[in-house]
Specification:
alpha/beta
């Protein structure tokens, strides 16, 4: 059965072993999408959608504001938002936004762009579209659809799977010291993708248990690892004929992989070269998720992105809720993707990249004080995101080698948050992240204060 709404003149699928229609759940493939009022007409006297023709009833309270406050960007921004057509349902397609994203990411067409309410909606929707619910007794049943994840990784993949009653297969990234040879990332370093182990897990599930791996979720750069996955390893999975599902590459942090190139065009080129978005034009079995929450500084508007082949974008569009992207979100996203805003965005990314380097150096300097009496451990991972992952070691005990200590790390995390006003993230419960704190790159002042308070907390604990 063809995908409804998809033009019949589609190029042949690549790789040849991939057939998108056979991967989609049959009930989703047969779904006749809800046709909303704005799919038909968006101009004229609009009396078709039961909207409130009188407009919204929000009164902006300006009483007590000083002239300076009344003229502030925040006040003007609120006024601009209230002036939007909030009483009308939004455009269900948002083509201008998709065109700007396609241009920024060097994609062949805006038809390869899908928008969601944050990337979390996109991740959940992918599972609902491709993976049949059902896990069997104790999650060990046979003849079920499953997803595959690579710990340590973003926790929402497992949450979405559980919400949708879907089984999860776990294939760890390389985390054992004896396996990584002191290297970070790349093809065989710490937090790299173990392709052989992944293939063995897929073969075991599919040949021996009769299950089907429908989606492989890869986080690159990883969270909490901060490590970009090797692109050749991703291609190897995409081209492996035993696996006939889709590979989702979650790139929430992709814009921080660059070196901070001063030239705008070279900066974009460097990011796009390292991004799996460069695979979308060739591979029909890859979906790349991105977001405006991280490098764009727009976590509050909740705009997620999927970059994929036209058939996959079409089936996602058929399945999503109508009007999922709000008028204010669309308005701000379009502004964020304007040439002027992109210039500031690049500048901010450069600043954060430099601040990451400074933060890393400050943490290393702490580890050199008094023969590292504090117990600041190594920074692990590829440092390809807007955070660093630092290990906390045991307190000094003579000449004994000091190991990562998760209990101490968690105590320091709580002391920082509850008594010192600095909130970082404890990650010591994640595979391969023993004793780790994840520290987001803040402003220069915030970074300096975080390091200062970390030093104080470690002296006490």
């Amino acid at each position: 059965m063809p995908i409804l709404g998809l033009s019949p003149n589609q190029p042949p699928s690549f790789p040849e072993h991939f057939d998108v229609e056979s991967v989609i759940r049959p009930n989703i493939l047969a779904l006749h999408p809800y046709r909303c009022a704005r799919d038909d007409y968006s101009e004229g006297i609009l009396l078709d959608a039961n909207e409130n023709a009188l407009g919204h009833s929000i009164v902006q309270d300006t009483d007590g504001l000083t002239p300076e406050e009344s003229a502030s960007p925040l006040t003007r921004g609120i006024e601009d938002t209230l002036a939007l057509p909030l009483h009308r349902y939004p455009d269900p397609v948002h083509l201008p936004i998709k065109q700007r994203i396609a241009s920024l990411r060097s994609l062949p067409s805006p038809e390869t762009v899908f928008l969601g309410v944050g990337s979390d909606e996109v991740l959940d929707l992918l599972i609902r579209v491709f993976v049949q619910p059902g896990v069997g007794p104790d999650g060990q049943g046979r003849s079920y659809d499953k997803i595959l994840i690579t710990p340590p990784t973003y926790g929402m993949y497992s949450v979405c799977a559980q919400v949708n009653d879907v089984g999860v297969v776990k294939v760890p990234l390389r985390v054992r010291e004896e396996d990584v040879g002191g290297q970070e990332g790349g093809k065989t370093g710490r937090f790299s993708l173990d392709v052989d182990a992944l293939k063995a897990a897929v073969i075991h599930e599919q040949r021996e248990l009769g299950n089907t791996i429908k989606i492989i979720f890869l986080c690159s750069p990883g969270n909490p690892t901060g490590t970009l996955l090797d692109p050749e390893s991703i291609k190897e999975v995409l081209e492996w004929s035993e696996f006939k599902g889709i590979v989702v590459v979650d790139e929430a942090y992709i814009d921080f992989v660059g070196s901070g190139e001063a030239d705008d065009a070279k900066m974009d080129e460097e990011i796009n070269k390292k991004s799996a978005a460069s695979l979308v034009g060739k591979y029909h079995n890859v979906v790349v998720t991105q977001t405006l929450s991280k490098s764009f500084g727009l976590a509050g508007i909740r705009l997620g992105i999927a970059l994929a082949s036209v058939p996959i974008v079409q089936i996602l569009s058929n399945t999503k809720a109508p009007y999922n992207i709000s008028v204010p979100t669309a308005h701000l996203a379009l502004k964020a993707l304007s040439p002027e805003s992109l210039s500031l965005w690049r500048s901010n990314v450069r600043t954060l990249t430099k601040s990451r380097i400074s933060l890393i150096q400050s943490l290393k300097d702490l580890s050199k004080q008094n023969d590292n009496n504090l117990g600041v451990g190594p920074i692990i991972g590829g440092n390809d995101a807007n955070f660093v992952l630092v290990r906390i070691l045991e307190k000094a005990k003579g000449d004994k080698e000091r190991k990562p200590e998760s209990v101490r790390a968690q105590q320091i995390y709580r002391r920082l948050a509850e008594q010192m006003g600095v909130v970082v993230r404890y990650r010591g419960n994640e595979l391969g992240c023993d004793g780790c704190l994840r520290i987001t790159v803040g402003t220069e002042e915030e970074n300096a204060m975080a390091v200062e308070k970390l030093q104080e907390a470690m002296k006490l604990l």
